[in-house]
Design brief:
- Chain B: This is DNA-binding transcriptional regulator YhcF (GntR family).
- The complex is a heterotrimer of chains A (244), B (119) and C (305).
- Chain A is built from ten helices and no strands.
- By secondary structure, chain A is an all-alpha fold.
- Chain A has one domain (3-175, 214-238).
- By secondary structure, chain B is mainly α.
- Chain B has helices spanning 8-21, 34-41, 45-57, 75-102, 106-118, and strands at residues 61-64, 68-71.
- In chain B, helix 1 (8-21) crosses helix 3.
- The longest helix of chain B has 28 residues, at 75-102.
- Chain C folds into two domains: 2-215, Rossmann fold; 219-291, Alpha-Beta Plaits (2-Layer Sandwich).
- Chain C has eleven helices and 14 strands.
- Chain C has a six-stranded mixed β-sheet, with helices on both faces. In chain C, strands 1, 2, 3 and 5 form a four-stranded antiparallel β-sheet that branches.
- The longest helix of chain C is centred in the middle third of the chain and has 17 residues, at 161-177.
- Chain C is globular and about 65 Å long.
- Chain C starts with a strand and ends in a 14-residue tail after the last helix.
- Classes of the chains: A mainly alpha (244), B mainly alpha (119), C alpha/beta (305).
- The A-C interface holds A 1-2, 4-5, 8-9, 12-13, 16, 79, 83-84, 86-87, 89-97, 240, 242-243 and C 47, 50-54, 69-71, 74-75, 77-79, 81, 84-91, 94-95, 97-99, 101-103.
């Protein structure tokens, strides 16, 4: 199987493959550091330094700045099928070879960035938020627990989203607009039902709280399940995907 | 460059024949290879090959295995004879037709030919 | 060996029958021309033969086996299509690098020479290339791949006449040195007529003509002269086209042996019908026949004055 060729297809443009995401991450980190420095300095001038730092540290648990890095990675799931698949077919690679090689690249990507984020988190925690009390790597999105939890969580998150993205793109390619309509309507229905349940039903609210405070492991199970479903759908559909 | 009133491979063959008749290719000389000729005329090598085959079959060229194609001995004379034979159909008949259209009699035609030959 | 065999190959889309019952056989190591108007089915046929699109009906064998999801066949096949999409961030050199790995017979030195000759800016983003430069990428890949079966689907879009001539010359030279099976679809028929050994004309998804170019040479002929003379000469022929100007007429018809001499003797001017002219005549006649009720389909007369 010409898996090496598929991998090469995804990585040949090395600057794009590894350079930009890291640069964007560093830029985003810099912005957060600057914000942190400003907050600390302003608060210190007002004599409020320690409290401001603590408050900022708490609030930044949900800091989505890390999505500057994760966003493009998520997009990769879509572009893999949208842009790389046609070229792979054009160069005579089979759908099986492409799926295998691309899945490998997804996993490799997820592992690489999971390691980087984990290292970042370890440093961040050890230095008390880079000396400024900010959070960038150590957020709920990436896991605020142990370093190995961050590693696993980030890996699963990235991989699953890539697989789901590939599945959605393949489905769209196959069924076009009608698929999108169905998808968004289904999503809207689910959100609506969920919200209605929250508002109208006490037991449901209780259930929602239970789910929300579900342990780390069950949540990982959910993410992994989504990824598995995405992979299954993607692989089932790609076998009959035609070049347009 | 090639006469387009005939199939391409025939025109190719005739071009080689022309070269033999006017002395470009002397007897026992090699002729260009199929690929060389094809590249030169911008045609498919198979067509050039067909043209050569025609000439080999007609005894105008000989194939020396491993070396190439050469003008056969006596080819020039043989070609001359053959073309003389076709001369009447190819040139005389149309000449007479055109002359008839213009009202030139056979005798006038003969005069014209004699005058032109002297010039 | 026969490089490609199809039997009743069809591709039906909901809106259109892109290909309908196509049965052809293409011999290896020849340059085959695939001609047809826009939408005739040329690209669809090539997409089917390279496994990019799935057939609705019929069978095909490419290099002895079905090409669908068949890496062994596909690595010996190169398909250069005018509508090839590339990833947004790709540069030409990225395509060349991946292609070099995908094709076992790739010749890097040849590719480098071609890049120079076509003046392809390999480090520029593909999004920023002109149509001609985009075509040049396809040409470099197609030629340097040395794939035993190479399809060129209108590979010259955007290329000027000089670059087109360069493509034909490089193709011919490489084909002579390293024979392979080439299938070339084109609208510039007269430019390549001398390169083609075998021609297939597709029209509305069906095969209209499938013949060696040598045979096609005397397939049709054009005569002109006094209308009465022309009509008399052609009284028992299939006339493909007839135009009239006053008392003069020109007609193109399916020729038989000896027709040329007979026509000249009848006082008519004779001229040859180029491959391109023949193509136009046949496809026009086919379209006109499709509009006529059945029963009057044997010959078509397009009279203009």
């Amino acid at each position: 199987m010409r898996i090496r060729n598929v991998v090469q297809l995804h990585t040949v443009n090395k600057l794009q493959a590894f350079g930009w995401p890291l640069v964007i991450m560093l830029l985003s980190l810099t912005v957060v550091l600057i914000i942190g420095a400003l907050v600390v300095n302003v608060a210190a001038a007002a004599g409020d330094g320690a409290q401001a730092r603590a408050g900022m540290n708490m609030g930044m648990q949900w800091n989505g700045a890390i999505f500057a890095l994760l966003g493009p990675l998520i997009g990769f799931g879509f572009t893999a099928m949208g842009q790389y698949f046609p070229l792979a077919l054009g160069l005579g690679l089979t759908r099986r070879e492409f799926a295998t090689g691309t899945a490998l690249v997804f996993a490799g990507n997820a592992a690489f960035y999971a390691v980087i984020i984990t290292i970042g988190k370890v440093i961040e925690v050890a230095t008390g938020g880079f000396g400024l009390g900010i959070r960038f790597f150590d957020t709920h999105f990436t896991g605020t627990g142990e370093w190995w939890q961050t590693l696993v969580q980030t890996f699963l998150l990235i991989l699953s989203v890539m697989l789901v993205g590939a599945a959605i793109t393949t489905a769209f390619h196959r069924w076009g607009q009608s698929f999108l309509w169905v998808f968004w309507i289904a999503l809207a229905v689910v959100v609506l039902a969920f919200s209605a349940g929250l508002v109208l039903s006490e037991p449901f609210r209780g259930f929602a709280v239970d789910v929300g405070t579900m342990g780390w492991l069950p949540w990982m199970g959910v993410v992994a399940l989504l990824g598995a479903v995405g992979a299954a759908v993607w692989l089932a559909l790609v076998r009959r995907a035609q070049a347009r | 460059m090639l006469d387009d009133s005939k199939p391409l491979f025939v025109a190719v063959a005739e071009q080689i024949e022309d070269g033999i008749l006017d002395g470009t290719y002397a007897e026992d000389d090699p002729v260009p290879s199929t690929n060389e000729l094809a590249a030169f005329l911008r045609i498919n090598p198979a067509t050039a090959g067909k043209g050569f085959s025609l000439l080999v079959d007609a005894g105008v060229l000989i194939k020396r295995r491993g070396i190439g194609m050469f003008v056969a001995p006596g080819a020039r004379e043989a070609l001359r004879q053959r073309r003389r034979f076709a001369f009447q159909d190819q040139f005389i008949a149309p000449l007479l037709r055109e002359a008839a259209q213009l009202g030139i009699s056979a005798e006038d035609l003969a005069d014209m030919i004699t005058k032109e030959a002297v010039r | 060996m026969t490089a490609i065999v199809t039997r009743q190959l069809s591709k039906h889309y909901p809106e259109v029958r892109a290909l309908d019952g196509v049965s052809i056989a293409l011999e290896e190591h020849r340059i085959h021309g695939l001609l047809g108007r826009n939408g005739a089915g040329k690209t669809t046929l090539m997409q089917l033969l390279t496994g990019q699109v799935f057939a609705t009906d019929g069978t095909m064998e490419v290099l002895g086996a079905s090409p669908v999801e068949n890496a062994d066949v596909l690595m010996q096949t190169c398909f250069i299509q005018e509508s090839q999409k590339y990833p947004d961030t790709f540069r030409a050199i990225d395509v060349l690098r991946v292609a070099a790995g995908a094709y076992p017979n790739w010749d890097q030195a040849f590719a480098d020479r071609l890049v120079d000759e076509f003046r392809l800016p390999v480090k520029r983003m593909i999004k920023k290339l002109s149509r001609g430069q985009l075509s040049a990428i396809g040409i470099v890949v197609g030629l340097a791949s040395r794939a035993p079966l190479t399809f060129f689907d209108e590979p010259y879009l955007g290329l000027d006449a000089v670059a087109r001539r360069m493509f034909y010359d490089r193709l011919l030279a490489d084909f002579s040195e390293h024979p392979r099976t080439v299938v070339l679809s084109t609208h510039h028929i007269d430019e390549v007529a001398n390169l083609l050994e075998h021609v297939i004309i597709l029209d509305e998804g069906r095969v209209l003509l499938d013949a060696d170019t040598d045979e096609l040479h005397h397939a049709a002929m054009a005569v002109s002269g006094r209308a009465a003379d022309v009509d008399a000469f052609l009284s028992d022929r299939e006339v493909l086209e007839r135009t009239v100007l006053g008392t003069l007429a020109t007609a193109t018809f399916t020729a038989r042996a000896g027709d040329e001499r007979a026509a000249r003797e009848a006082g008519l001017d004779v001229s040859q019908v180029s491959l391109q002219a023949l193509f136009v005549l046949l496809t026009t006649a086919n379209a006109a026949a499709a509009e006529q009720p059945i029963g009057t389909r044997s010959a078509t007369d397009v009279a203009t004055s």
